[in-house]
Hints:
The complex is a heterodimer of chains A (657) and B (584).
Chain A: E1 2-3, E2 6-7, H1 13-16, E3 24-29, H2 35-39, H3 47-52, H4 60-63, E4 91-94, E5 101-102, E6 104-111, H5 114-117, H6 121-139, E7 147-153, H7 161-181, E8 185-191, E9 195-196, E10 199-200, E11 204-214, E12 229-233, H8 245-260, E13 266-271, H9 274-284, E14 289-292, E15 302-310, H10 315-321, E16 326-332, E17 336-339, E18 342-345, H11 346-355, E19 395-400, H12 407-416, E20 420-425, H13 431-447, E21 450-453, H14 468-475, H15 477-489, E22 493-497, H16 499-507, H17 509-512, E23 524-526, E24 534-542, E25 558-565, E26 569-571, H18 574-582, E27 586-591, E28 612-616, E29 622-625, H19 648-654
Parallel strand pairs in A: 7-8, 14-17, 19-20, 19-21, 21-22, 22-29
Antiparallel strand pairs in A: 1-2, 4-6, 6-11, 7-11, 9-10, 12-15, 12-16, 13-15, 14-16, 17-18, 23-26, 24-25, 24-27, 27-28, 28-29
Chain B: E1 2-8, H1 14-26, E2 32-44, H2 48-57, E3 65-68, E4 77-84, H3 91-104, E5 110-121, H4 125-135, E6 141-144, H5 172-179, H6 185-199, H7 205-214, H8 217-220, H9 222-225, E7 227-233, H10 239-253, H11 263-277, E8 292-301, E9 309-321, H12 323-328, H13 330-347, E10 351-361, H14 378-396, E11 399-407, E12 416-426, E13 440-445, H15 455-458, H16 467-470, H17 479-488, H18 492-495, E14 498-503, H19 508-513, H20 533-538, H21 552-555, E15 578-583
Parallel strand pairs in B: 10-11
Antiparallel strand pairs in B: 1-2, 1-3, 2-5, 4-5, 4-6, 8-9, 9-12, 10-12, 13-15, 14-15
Helix pairs in contact in B: 5-6, 13-14, 14-17
Amino acid sequence: MTWRGQKIVDLSREFLDTNGASQSAQIHVCAAHSPFTEAKHVASKSLVEILSDLSTCSRKGLGAMFDASVGAGTVLWPFGGKNQNTAPDAMVAKLPLLEGDTDACTFMAWGFDPFISEKSPFHGAIHAVTESVCKVVAAGGRLKDIRLTFQEYFPKLGNDPKRWGMPFSALLGAYHAQQSLRLAAIGGKDSMSGSFNDLDVPPTLVSFALAPGHASLALSPEFKKPGSEISLIQIPFDDEGLPNFEILKSTAEAIHSLNQEGHFLSLHHIGESGIAAALAKMSFGNDIGAQVDASCDMFAAASFSFLVEHTASSSSAIKGAIPTLITLGHTTETQTLAINGSNYPIATLKDAWQGTLEPVYPTSPSTGLDNTTADLPDFKSTTARRTNSKSIIPKIIIPAFPGTNSEYDSAKSFREAGGDAQILVFRNLGAQHISESIDALAAKIRESQILMFPGGFSAGDEPDGSAKFIATIIRNPKVADAIMDLIHNRDGLILGICNGFQALIKTGLVPYGEIRTPSPESPTLVHNTIGRHISQYVHTRVTSNQSPWLALNAPGDIHTVPVSHGEGRFYADTDVIKQLAASGQIATQYCDANGKPSLDNAFNPNGSAFAIEGITSPCGRVFGKMAHSERAGTRVAKNIPGNKHQPIFEAGIRYFQ
Amino acid sequence: MHRVFVEKFTPHDIETRHLLADLKESLTLPGLESLRIIQRYEVDGISKDKFDEAAQLILSEPQVDRISPTLEIGANEQAFAIEYLPGQFDQRADSAAQCIQILTGGTRPNVSSSKVIVLRGKISQTEFDAIRSFAINPVDSHEVPLINSSERKSPVAPNDVTILSGFNKSDPAQLRNDLGLAMSAADVAFTQAYFRDQEKRDPSITEIRVLDTYWSDHCRHTTFLSEITNVVFDDENSPVHRAWNAYLETRKKLGRDSKPISLMDIALMGMRELRASGELDNLEESDEVNAASIVVPVTIKQSATSEPTSEEWLVMFKNETHNHPTEIEPFGGAATCLGGCIRDPLSGRSYVYQAMRVTGAGNPLVPFSETLPGKLPQRKICRTAAHGYSSYGNQIGLATGEVAEVYHPGYVAKRLEIGAVVAAAPRSQVFRGKPATGDAILLIGGRTGRDGVGGATGSSKEHTDTALENSAEVQKGDAPTERKIQRLFRNPVLTRKIKVCNDFGAGGVSVAIGEIAPSLLINLDAVPKNTMASTALSSPSPNRKNAWPCASTLAISRISSKKQTAKTSNARMSQMSQTTAALS
């Protein structure tokens, strides 16, 4: 290694590769009882206590901070059902194709319980591996296709043989599980620094199970319909508290075959919180209740057991393949769980389950909205809209700025709708690159019919506000002239989604149709009322179909589309909004499942005035919207009901045909 | 130098309201009535006219901000200002500089950003100090004067690298202590013997820093590779003893009897056994160890009407932790956990498309008053880390499919912060080659800064309640830059030319480049540095107790943080947005 022309490092490879002085360790494995058999005897908590316990309670306020829709490949949304409340057992995503469609996907799940592992790291590791495998199986992956990777995290070991016994036992537990399941860990990482003064982390071995598979087979746990049967699949344990791996393997294979034959409506790995809590979580997604009468303990831990929702007509097929199947009861229309004669209203259980972490990870803002209504008059356009020039395959230019992240999904949506979409990477390494990129962007706009600003976080939403980077580029005279030429002289179209919408509104392209210096009265997009990023599905309704982008829709049409943003709250004076509505520029609004515009945080999660999701320029040819219409596709978000295809890309292409 | 103060007005002052609620909840402040957060920008290198235009169009928005050239503080108000430590990546200042450059069409101006916090009400000095220490995390930030902050010293050129004369004859334990090394005294003695007997010279300080990094537990799994010489069981009739015997039997069966027994060997035995039996038939095997990699057949339909075609793809997956950095600087630590995790399969030339986050914490509902000395409150760690990880994933455009957090009192010792990712690429786009003499080694990605220096060694040391002060510095993530590498690595014209690729982790140049090929020539002057990096060269981190001028800190840095190790046929370096590649 040289620096300033001098050799400052000159080491032999042989010496480097010794990894230092050789070190040795001694191991002492302490006696431990099986935590599984012990745990069976301590269930004395009520269902409300179980659901509100930190180990079981809802993590929705945490999860909703994370974009789960970018890439348009998420097969199981992290919170499923019409209420977006029931978490799947595994995350499932389609492989990321730049072109074309595939059913190929991956399933990934994790397993670990610190309270088992602290009692016996050996059993803890077996539990972690087996749980991760069971969760993949429950979500529709095939057991024999699973590959594992582990994360170990242990206290500093020093020279204490008993401390060394912890990772030693855990790795032997993991080995035992791998050998029994005939599955291997092909990756792993260790961190051996989990100590602070005399405090130690619990012995931690987290197992991650990954299986390639088919998105069409992905299963989610929320109850799908009233009147279906609920059954229990259990895996027995031996005297030492270890699961019977042979039965687990054959059961998993049977589950896979039955799933291929379409016998399951829902499937869920139960886990440590027990059957009753699992039933509750399955009910939260769609507010479908259950009536269950059975002799098994509904409140005890039920690791490596599964709950199945299936139609009565599938009962015999499932029983034939899994003889130990126990019929527990059926789903109901009433919003209660009836468990062995006790009735629990779903709403009460949900409150208990959601309330615990609300102070840490809120799901709704602390203050409400000022407005009292979100209703605006519909605006229906009846004239056919297409350009006057002759039919062509329009060219779409999609600039990718530093921080743009939706250019692939956007380009794919336009291509699949029949357009000729091209991504232009805006380079910012030095002044020269910026200047060249501005020239290139202006030139591309002049040869395209459609300009699309995709979503993302241009320049990281900095300095202290979204889309300032893009807005600054739009204001550049060369780019500005090309844009004005596109909409004033060439009858072109402009679309901005999310970050793109922010750029359009901050430059005045919506709602004014021209580039302006903003004034204090200009409509804008500000921080969500909840004060954090939101990622969820929303319903939006078409309020005005004046825009060519909405020519394939009529006012009142409802679409279910993901949002993912930190600054999506539409903000403007009521007077300004009423004027926009009167001229048909309020294109889309957040609404409830019935299409009513809503100020309720569950439906209008960023707190937009009059629930406004998208607006247009006066002529309608510039359209900005927050929700990611491009993040749709076959088998995307299978566990979210609704019409997820919003035909704005087709409409944009048709304008030129 | 131009200066502007920008303040969000009601109802857009969300950050202000959150901080006020946090303060009221965390500290006892009966006299605190309200507070204001004012963003201060200082810009050098443009005209007054252009600055005014930038202040209007870039640094503020009239619908939500009020701006002022001066800081107005009322009679019943007290204020302090916070800024990132020199050399920390400041995305706000960096983006502002880029936007202003686009506006002016000239060179990129120098921009610094700081945050002024104004407290209104009756607040004692003790309360004021408590609020300051709540708001300022010394790991990445410090307090700066409210005015006259323009006196930023321009970096001084660092000294040449020092030769440690007398190193080979000094007491190993004393050297370890004096140099603040993570390696053991036995390693120091081993190193002394090497320089005395083989090199027959004194080492440079850089050589010692390189070795300390290369051999850290973080990079080399010292613990996992220690030879296990003796095993005692309390209960020989237990399932764990039977599993031990099964492991020994498999070793024999696989002809590995003579190999040392270690935790690593146990960890890998499952894979070795199933590979030998043929049950692990879809593993992609190569000399590279970026991530776990399997071969998957994929059926693709180009359009709804076209005939499906079949292709082989590689699916890669990877998990890693950033426990130590997240514990001390939750935002940056968690953000770079994901950043580092992404870079492993990315360096394997695959596209990361889904992430999972599994974390472990103490109860986040306990009152702040129960926080241990030398620790951040659990709730603050949980929330800030979630913000950090999510902001990185949201920015880079990675779908997070599951976010889980387990709670156990033991994680008060140190947080568990795991990122796991899944990636894929057509197999035809991934070429695996062998480095040969004369190959070029390219460094691709963000510029090297001071943050993260000593990440690998810092996280491998013992931690006590002074951890917050003397810890390794934590890097700030730069998602937009890593996104560029992702885009670049989706281009098969490039990926097919890469023989070997390693991503930069806590080990920096020392490890990431050091592992690329058996024999290398590295020109450190060629490493692109950010503006403050040379400060790192000249002034050893103030947190370091020794004062060796160490050029190695820069060399082995590039943003970093943590990274544990490779333990199977996969896994390796990670961190920030740099990647090294040997090109044919």
